[in-house]
């Protein structure tokens, strides 16, 4: 889950970088939709990353 969260965060970062290179007309047209999509993707990725860290920490503590 940590790996999947990192992949989603990387995808969100690449999407933000692509949007930064878009033209002004494209940004005006898709600004609200893409902003919501990027925020949702970042939130899901952060949740997956945190859940993966919790599972990993639980497994490590279980081994002790």
UniProtKB/TrEMBL annotation:
> Any transmembrane segments, and where?
38-63
**Keywords per UniProt:** Membrane, Transmembrane, Transmembrane helix
For this entry, the protein name equals Major facilitator superfamily (MFS) profile domain-containing protein
Which organism was this protein described from?
Kocuria turfanensis
């Amino acid at each position: 889950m940590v790996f999947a969260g990192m992949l989603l965060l990387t995808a969100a970062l690449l999407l933000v970088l692509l949007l930064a290179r878009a033209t002004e007309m494209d940004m005006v047209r898709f600004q609200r939709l893409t902003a919501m999509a990027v925020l949702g993707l970042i939130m899901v990725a952060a949740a997956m990353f945190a859940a993966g860290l919790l599972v990993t920490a639980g497994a490590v503590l279980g081994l002790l």
